[in-house]
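Handout, section B. The chain below has 297 residues.
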Amino acid sequence: MRYLKWLAKFFVTVALLWWVFRRIDLESVSQAIGKADKLLLALAFVPYIASRLAGAVRLTTVLQAHEIGLSHYGGLHLNWISMFYGMFLPGGLGGDAYKLLRLKQHFPAHGTMLLTRILLWDRIIGFVMLALLAGVIAMFRFDDFLLIGLIIALALPGGWALWWSAKKWLPGILPVIGRVLLLSFGVQAFQIICTGFLLYSMGEYGHFKDYALLFLISSIATVFPLSIGGIGVRELVYLRGSVFLGVLEPVAVTVSFLFDIIVTATAITGAVLVIGQRSDALPGISSGERDAEVVLE
């Protein structure tokens, strides 16, 4: 069953890419990549990696707020390996499942339910920031009174619902909610900057708000596990969205394709940590947590 799920994602990914590339001029995409400034393409990795660092710190901030003694270094190690597993392993062992497995292994005293809620809320906060930034950029992009009113009308009760839900299901996050939201903003801001580097590398200096909006909407779409690493889904959103926003389709699809390459290449580096592991122990665990684990064993 695990392999069937992975194969289903694989075929969905291939089908989406086939559908997208049938509807654009592949020669234009190839030429755009060939003519791109290679230095700017290389520099695009920097803000993306920074976004992954911010995401790792976000998770360890929530963990530490619940007295789970994993350092930011240990959280970075955990996140980097989970990137690799989430992208390439077949079956249901995605990145979050791997994190839960390792956290249960090292912090059994905190319980599966609490750890699951922490991982779920880490995702929820990221999704909320995506939606919030997409709404803000949409307000500036369309400058429509009704749209602005609708976004504000949704944002206010949405913020209250988020606070109420956190207070009910994960109250330990409330003292650090501001820091967690700021880190979530950093994750998306760095990835938008990465998109900017990709655009500038191809000599595209206009319509930045359009491409930023396309990026955020495509990121929301890739939250749903329909394909491997969101590949294909992102290209589909860029293709259809470029028609609606009036930007060049080849440029939009090329940006999404290059971004997927950066995501995949970064995830592959997690294999280095997997191969280099000399034990099952996570680095950066406080001595108190280690002692508790020994006692429980």
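Note. DSSP finds 14 helices and no strands in the chain. Compare this with the example in section A.
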